[in-house]
Structures are given as C-alpha cells and as structure tokens.
Amino acid sequence: MKIDWREVAVIVAPGAVLAIWSAAVAAVIWATLDAPERAALGTLIEPRLALTLMLWLMLSGALGAVLRMAYQRWVAMPARLAEQVQALAGSNNQREIALQGSAEVQALTAAVNKLVRQRGELRADIEHKVRDASREIEQERSRLAALMSELTQSVVVCNLDGRILLYNARARLQFRVLSQSPSLADGAELIGLGRSIYAVFDRNLVAHALESVQQRLQRGVANPSAQFVTGTRGGQLLRVQLAPVRAIPGDIPSPGAVDVSLNGFVLMLDNITRDFAEQSQRDRMLHGLTEGSRASLGNLQAAVEMLDFPDLDAKTRERFQCVIRDEVNAMSQRIRELDTHTTQMLKTRWPMEDMLGADLLAAAARRIETLYGCRVALSEVDASLWLEVDSFSLLQALVFLAGRLTEDYAIRSVQLRLAAAGSRAHLDLVWSGQAMTTATVSSWEHEPMKVGADVSSLTVRDVVERHGGEFWCECERERDETFARFLLPLAGKHERLDTKTFVRGDSRPEYYDFDLFRASEQTRELADRKLTDLSYTVFDTETTGLDPSKGDEIIQIGATRIVNGKLRRQECFEQLVDPQRPIPTVSIPIHGIEPAMVAGQPTIAAVLPTFHAFAHDTVLVGHNVAFDMRFLQLKEERTGVRFDQPVLDTLLLSAHVHPQQESHQLEAIAERFDVAVLGRHSALGDAMVTAEVFLKLIPLLAEKGIHTLGQARDAAQQTYYARIRY
C-alpha cells in the first residue's frame, strides 16, 4: 500500500514535540543547579528513568492516536471527498457519495449529492431537448448505416491521410478473405476505424488515383473517379474504384491537404481473382482455337487444291479426303470445347447469394399456400444449413412444381425437407399418393415455368444447371411418398458472416465515425500528440500464473480499440492460447479457463504476430499493464515481433488523478466512475472495463494540466505504483 507520509508525520509529531519540550525544560532546570544539587537530582531520577520513558511513550502514543483520528477526520476524509467530487465533475456519473466523516463533512457530502441530483435532472432535460432536435439527423445516419450494411459491394471511406472512417460488413468480409490469419483476427488486423488503408494498398497507387481525380475536378468533371487493379500479399487481385469526398463549404481543410475541395475518398472493392483466372483460361482457349484453326484451314486448303487435280488416283484422293474429315472434326471439337466452357461459365457466373435454407423453405411454403391453397409442412429441416443459390429462380421452381401437383393431380398437402448430403444439400418437395412417370417429370423439367400469371423463360432444368446441381424424382414405397429432389451447393465457409463478430449488443454494428474527417497525421512525435487525438488498443491477458520469468504462460488475449475518443466494441480481438503446459488448478476459478478449452488452440507463436498487427500504429493501454507487457516481452525473440509502441497504465493514471483513494484496483476505479463490470477476469471483459475507465480518466488528466501522451507517461512514472516490477 502507498505510504502517506503526512499521516506518519502527524502520528510521530506529538512524541517528538513532547521529547523536545521535556529536553528543553530539563536543560533549563539543570543549568540553574549547582554541583551538589545536580548530583542529588541525578541520584533521584536515575532509578525512575525507565518509568519516565514509559510514560513518555504512552503519552506520545495516545496523542499520536488522537491526532491520527483527527487527521483522518479533518484532512484525509475531505481530500478523498474532493477526489470523488472531481471524478463526478469530470464524468456523467450520477452515483451519490456515501456519507462519512465528521458532521461537517457529511453535511458537505449531502450538499454535493444534492448538486449531483440537480445536475442529473438538468442533464436529462438537456439530453431530452438535444435528442428531439437531432432526431432527424440520427434518422439520416441510420438510413446511411442501413444502406451501407446492406450493400453487396465492399465500401471503405477514408480521410486524406488514408485513415478508415467508414466501412460496411461486406468490406469486413472482403478483408477477412485477404487476411493471412482469418481464423485468428477475422481480418481485424487489416481493417478498422482509424487504421491506415495503406496496410493493404500501396500509398503511391492511391495518391496517383487521387491526383487523377483532382485533375478532373479542376477541368469541371461533375462526378470524377479513378480505377486501378492491385495485387495483395495473399495473391488476390482487387479492382478498386476511387471516388472523392468533397468538403462542405466552410470546413477547415486538413493540414497537408492538396486540394481544399476534398477531405477524403471512397474505395469500392471487387475481388477479380476468379474473373481474371476465367478470362485467362478463355483467352488461352481462343488463342488455341485461332492457332489450331489456322493450321487446319491451311491443311484443308491444300487438300482441296489437290483434289482439283483430275489425274489423282483413288488411293491418294481417299487420303486427302481423310485429311479434310480429320481437320473438320478437329475444328468442330475445338469449337465445341469453347462453347461448353462459355456455357458453363455463364451458368456459374450467375449471381448467387448465401441464404439460410430454412428461410428459403419458409418463403416457399408461404408462396405455395397463398397461390394454390395447398398445405405445406416443413419437416426434417436442418436449420443450420446455408445454401449458395439464386433464391428467386429456385423459389420459382419449387412453387411451379407444387402448382403442377395441385392443378394436375389435386395434391392438397406437401412437405419440404432439407438435409446435408456431404458437400451438397438435398432439398425435397414431398407428397403422398400419386407417383409420377419419367415422361411426366421430364416434361415438367423442360417446360417454361408458370407461377400464377407470370411465365418465366427459365425451366426447372435451367435452374438446376445454373446451380451446378441435379434434379430427379424418387418414390419411397415404405412411406408411400414421392419426392422431387434438388441437389444444391452449400455456402462456402469462407463466405459466411459471423454474426457474433458484427453484433455485440446493438442491432447494427457502428462501423462509421464521421468525426475522423477532421483527424490528420502529423510528423510530430507521439509524445507531443494530445491524448484525445490518439488511437489506442486496450488489452488484457489471462495467464497460468503470476510469474512470467518462471515459466507461466498466456492462455488468453483480449483487446478492443479506442478511436477518436470512442470505444469500438465491434472491433475486438479475443483468442484462447495453448500454453503447452498444465494450467494450475488454483487459477481456474479466477479466469474460468479449463485445460480442455485451450487444447488444440493456436500457440502464442501463432497468436502474438496477429495481435501485434491488430495493435499496430496505436498506443497500448492496460491495467497494471507492466504485468502483461512482461509476458509479451519474454516472447519477442520466439515470435519475432516487438511491441515498441508507447504504453499507458490506468492503475498509474488513477493513482495520479486520485492519490488519496485507498484502492486503485480495477473494480474500485470502475465503481468510482460508475462503469459496469461485466465479464470480469476474462481477457476481453477486463479490456472493455479498462477502456471505459481510461476514457473517464482523460478529462480528469486534462484538469490537472496533462494533455499529451508524454505528459501522461511522465505523470504515471511519478506515482508510487510505478516502482512495481515483474
């Protein structure tokens, strides 16, 4: 615990004063005595010296205890009250302070609590008025967020420094495909609010596109844009369209901006790796057709010319006719191959979408019941299957077949089934009674689909071929049922969206921050940057024990980001780690991580480089972070990554802001700031709490004149807790 030297001085002072006063009185009396009197006095006092010393100690202790109580009551308690009031004043905390101390201090506390209640009522009234006034703006932002989340194209918006200020879910999915470790960071090491787009794209490439756009703007082009194709480290090809974001008249331009009419740019991304491969294959086939046809035509021309000679014998004439037949067959084969490839490409290039199979069947059931009055039961439906389908045409095929059953055979009840079949799925339309002949099924399969009053040019066979699947009818005699079965592709795992990643408590993740338009990258040192201008990675670790130098290992890392003064709950990192050593039983109740949970998880050698990429270009923040940093530093040589960015500790900052508080544990600080503690002693849960505490500390540091990163680090090192080493 931190020693309060003022309190020590208060306790020691009575004894010291009493000793000095006694010594002074004794000296004065001793000076007034002659030699015989001094000898007699010494003889009288010497046997009673121990009693005198004991009485001095008792009196000093009693006076010290009384003064200590007075210090706690009249000095320490008001100081703690002042710090609590400061915490209330620097935050939106509405928690009232407990009544403690003397009657006067309690009266002052009651008055402060009254002011807190009044402030709360005033803030509530202001918030109500602001909420009413900004409702229209919020509706516009919600519409934009909804639009961005539903776009099927990857969209990323950046300021002129290349810092990402907006992206949609499709872009997050695209960057997950580009990630070198998608299972660990889910693409978060490449994309995130405040991160640099130049981690993916060459800065010069983007600068050239921006320059092209600016030149077109100067020539008066209304909607200029630029396009380029670039490759990624993973071998993917991206086609990027860049469009400018124009500044609103009256905006202050970002420092270093080339043109004050721009304050950012929009990137629209398309992965053309597959298109490029298909185009290359088609070009090779066309080249082969051209070169092969040239040779074949030459042979044909020579053979035809030879056949014109009237004096050819029958054997020679037959040989030249064989040449003609062979070359014609070869040309026909090449044309058929090209035609087959083109036809297949057109089928597979039809836009498909990932759809939950249960949703498709539910939509089909509603449509069939509405159009034909036929009861539809959903039975044996695997609710976890996602299909990669053209949902509209497949829905039409199901409704068409059900309509033919209802109209031609008076079937009044059908079932829809869905089950996995290896890498594909079986989608069945089931009915009882009437079995179908092969001819009937074939006629249904190849006639244009009619659904209600709408007639489609597609057939059931076209729909099946579009999906690269199969279709057939089969009879189950034991159950007296017949079913029409579609064999359909399952959605690829790499294209499935993880809802837990995108939805954390809110109906729609917040992947935008328009205030970042005003942020700019300066050449000044980080130490001189304001705390409010920096981006932070707030992290925590769970470990097998408390001694990293003796073999304890990390078993979980959790982190979140603070960008532009806002906690980004959706941009988080959480990963269990296989410590490759036993987890002590005594530590399991603390972090709740069982050995079975880390078995098979990545090792720290795989996790730490990904976390390093996630935290790149940010300031690290943690609570008692020296402990966590020691674990990271011991792994630098093994993993090849070095965490050399600045580090801030909320423990030290809290001790500087509130030196009179008895505890600076994370729970105690969170209680002072009215921060909800959820998921405590999980790495991500602690990181979230630490991030909220850090945001509360920044305005309190500003009140003490601490505005920059360098000032905050210096202040933290002056605290008592900065002496702790691991």
Structural account:
This protein folds into five domains: 126 residues, no CATH class; 134 residues, Beta-Lactamase (2-Layer Sandwich); 73 residues, Helix Hairpins, CATH 1.10.287; 138 residues, Histidine kinase-like ATPase, C-terminal domain (Heat Shock Protein 90, 2-Layer Sandwich), CATH 3.30.565; 202 residues, Nucleotidyltransferase, domain 5 (2-Layer Sandwich), CATH 3.30.420.10. The protein has a five-stranded antiparallel β-sheet with strand order 2-1-5-4-3, sandwiched between helices. The chain is elongated and about 170 Å long. About 4% of the residues have low confidence. It is α+β, with helices and mostly antiparallel strands and 726 residues long.
Quick synopsis:
With 726 residues, the chain is of the alpha+beta class.
Q: How are the strands of the largest sheet arranged?
A: 2-1-5-4-3
Helix content: 40-55%
At CATH level 3, the topology of the largest domain is Nucleotidyltransferase, domain 5
Report the count of strand segments. 19
Question: What's the CATH architecture of the largest domain?
Answer: 2-Layer Sandwich
CATH homolog superfamily of the largest domain: Ribonuclease H-like superfamily/Ribonuclease H
> What about the largest sheet?
5 strands, antiparallel
